[in-house]
């Protein structure tokens, strides 16, 4: 079998970053700016899907594109500094590099804002692809040759399965271990602190993947 370089994809929100504080603050600001009612506490319990899906709970359909533009415009000043890395996130990317591999980020988040988060936290993936959700993530995973995809949502599991990548789920987002397993995750980790050891074991068992 032809050897190939290990490439691991990561989701962003609730996988590499705890985006709840920043997104909560941004929804509060959006409500104040527009006069609309938005339950920010509820909104941050279902992070993962594209922004438009959440805005549909709070705005008429015709207003959603404009509200999405306003949210994204407000986001950098409100959400970036308020958002910490998830436990083990920098170490997870470092573990991929230590194995001689490439780490990419594939996220549903608006790509310019995703880039700001990664830069602010000093995380430097080899590639970043934004604006892709669920099965659509498979496009980027296949393009970059990812054999593993790590995410916290059943949509991430579906993306990995569609790309025929090994699905590593972390139970740090809105989906619990049972939901992730039922969606087809190959393995479920409590959080990313367990990822480096998992990766070392996985890599030893994949002789066709080069370091």
Q: What does it look like?
A:
This protein is an alpha/beta fold and 211 residues long. Helices cover 44% and strands 13% of the residues. The protein is elongated, with a radius of gyration of 17 Å. The two termini are 15 Å apart.
Brief overview:
The protein is of the alpha/beta class and 211 residues long.
End-to-end C-alpha gap:
15 Å
Q: How many beta strands in the DSSP annotation?
A: 8
Question: Major sheet: size, sense and barrel closure?
Answer: 6 strands, parallel
Q: Helicity, in percent?
A: 40-55%
- Please tell me how large the radius of gyration is: 17 Å
What is the residue-averaged pLDDT?
A: 96
Low-confidence stretches: none
Give the arrangement of secondary structure elements.
Blueprint: E1 4-5, E2 7-10, H1 20-34, H2 40-43, H3 51-55, H4 64-79, H5 89-98, E3 102-106, H6 111-120, E4 127-129, H7 137-143, E5 148-151, H8 154-162, E6 166-170, H9 177-183, E7 187-189, H10 195-204, E8 209-210
Parallel strand pairs: 1-8, 2-3, 2-5, 3-4, 5-6, 6-7
Helix pairs in contact: 1-4, 5-10
Short key terms for the protein model shown above:
six-stranded parallel sheet, 211 residues, elongated, alpha/beta, 8 strands, 44% helix
């Amino acid at each position: 079998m032809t050897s190939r370089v290990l490439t691991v994809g990561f989701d962003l929100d609730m996988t590499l970053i705890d985006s709840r504080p920043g997104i909560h603050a941004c929804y509060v600001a959006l409500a104040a700016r527009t006069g609309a009612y938005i339950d920010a506490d509820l909104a941050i319990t279902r992070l993962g899907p594209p922004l438009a899906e959440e805005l549909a709970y709070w705005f008429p359909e015709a207003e959603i594109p404009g509200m999405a533009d306003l949210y994204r415009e407000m986001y950098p000043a409100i959400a970036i500094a308020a958002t910490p890395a998830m436990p083990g996130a920098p170490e997870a990317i470092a573990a991929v590099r230590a194995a001689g591999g490439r780490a990419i980020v594939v996220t549903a988040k608006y790509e310019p804002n995703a880039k700001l988060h990664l830069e602010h936290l000093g995380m430097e993936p080899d590639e970043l692809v934004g604006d892709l959700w669920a099965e659509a993530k498979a496009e980027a995973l296949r393009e970059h040759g990812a054999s593993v995809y790590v995410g916290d949502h059943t949509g991430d599991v579906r993306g990995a399965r569609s790309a025929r990548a090994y699905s590593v789920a972390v139970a740090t987002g809105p989906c619990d271990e049972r939901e992730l397993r039922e969606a087809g995750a190959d393995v479920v980790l409590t959080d990313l602190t367990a990822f480096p050891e998992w990766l070392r074991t996985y890599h030893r068992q994949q002789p066709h993947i080069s370091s």
